[in-house]
Amino acid sequence: MAGKNGRVYEQLFSPTVQHTLDLVGIFVFAISGALLAVRKNFDVFGIAVLAEVTALGGGLFRDLVIGAVPPAAFTDLGYFLTPLLATLLVFFLHPHVERLQTGVNIFDAAGLGLFCVAGTTKAYDYGLGLTASACLGLTTAVGGGVLRDVLANEVPSLLRWDRDLYAVPAIVGSAMVALCIRYEALTPFTSGLAVVTAFVLRLLALRFHWRAPRAWNRRSTVVEGD
């Protein structure tokens, strides 16, 4: 049940469209988690865990923070089974999936855009302010990836200077939604524009290797590329 700010997200898309978009995003994020597990030489259980965590971690954290309990990940069987489907696909066909990495990156960018918009609007629906809603939109989009990297014993890609921009596109998408809500301009068109903006920014970052700046005039003993 939505909170004091109403049902913004439900007004944007029909329940069927919402559910379909959620499952697509979950599936693509699960693929990225499962592929990392294969690279780390995890067994099938480890692959499934990393797929589930990557796909559902951000949304689960958001739902717990806003009080949407039990979280959707535990009330909709499709949310739980979709990462398992991705696990099976990667388990048996991972060499082929690896070769489709460009396609996976494109869908991952689309999932990033969808989740940052959905996360922001859902958080606002449950009574959070605009800034907090945008922050939870960002968390929804990138939280699963952070948990994936931690479980795989890696520095989260979100924090590494040698990774192409990932959080920034999600920040831009979430901020656009918050501003649209503030000025009562949130419609299916403007929310779609926020999704597309985050999506395109992420693709451009991948294409041109855009990265966030490091500390000015830094002195570090860390070898670049480590």
TrEMBL record:
Pfam families per the UniProt record, alphabetical: Gly_transporter (PF03458)
Keyword field: Cell membrane, Membrane, Transmembrane, Transmembrane helix
Cellular compartments annotated: Cell membrane
Positions of the Glycine transporter domain: 20-94, 106-180
Signal peptide boundaries: none
Family: Belongs to the UPF0126 family.
Protein name: UPF0126-like membrane protein
Source organism: Streptomyces lividans TK24
